[in-house]
Each structure stands twice: as structure tokens, then as C-alpha cells.
Specification:
The chain is an alpha+beta fold. Helix content is about 25%, strand content about 15%.
């Protein structure tokens, strides 16, 4: 699932289905997403370091995975497409 500004950029709906070769990790999902939608390169992760951009969060199975290593395997429910990996644009301000 993608936030609205990334959906608009990629011209897709809220939910994108991808084929990802195991092991399915945050990094492998993002690699597949950027390969399929190259206009998203650099929007979720930095072009050079591939580090998560500020104000972007990853959630799966009601858990914040934003600070997990990106090579950590995703929960089986995400791999089996029963639950989504959510890329969320965080909001800051006062």
C-alpha cells in the first residue's frame, strides 16, 4: 500500500501487487516496486544509500518495521499476500 502522493506519481491505486523472489524483505519489495515503477526511485529510499527517507514509515501486521534492518524477512502473512506491507508518509508539525 502506498501513500497518496506516491500513488499519484506512479499512477496506481492504493494497493500494488508485486512478484518478489524470496527471501521477501523490505529491501526486496522496494527493489521490485522501483523496478516496476522507476518513477518511485529516490522517493522512498535515498538514491545512493538506499536508506529510508525521513518521514517514510513501513508497517506490516500492525507493527512498525521502519527501524528494522531492510534485509529482515517480512512476516509470512505479508509474503502470502494476506496482509499488506504499508509504506506510509509520516506527518510532522506543531
Amino acid at each position: 500500500m502506498l501513500p497518496a502522493h506516491l500513488r499519484n506519481l506512479a499512477r496506481v491505486g492504493a494497493e500494488v501487487t508485486l512478484e518478489v523472489v524470496p527471501p521477501v524483505t523490505i529491501a526486496s519489495v522496494l527493489d521490485a516496486l522501483e523496478a516496476r515503477y522507476p518513477m518511485l526511485c529516490g522517493t522512498i529510499r535515498d538514491h545512493d544509500t538506499l536508506e529510508r527517507r525521513p518521514f517514510i514509515r513501513y508497517f506490516a501486521c500492525e507493527e512498525d518495521l521502519s527501524h528494522q534492518r531492510t534485509d529482515t524477512p517480512l512476516p509470512e502473512a505479508v509474503v502470502a499476500a494476506r496482509e499488506p506491507l504499508i509504506v506510509l508518509g509520516a506527518i510532522a508539525g506543531g
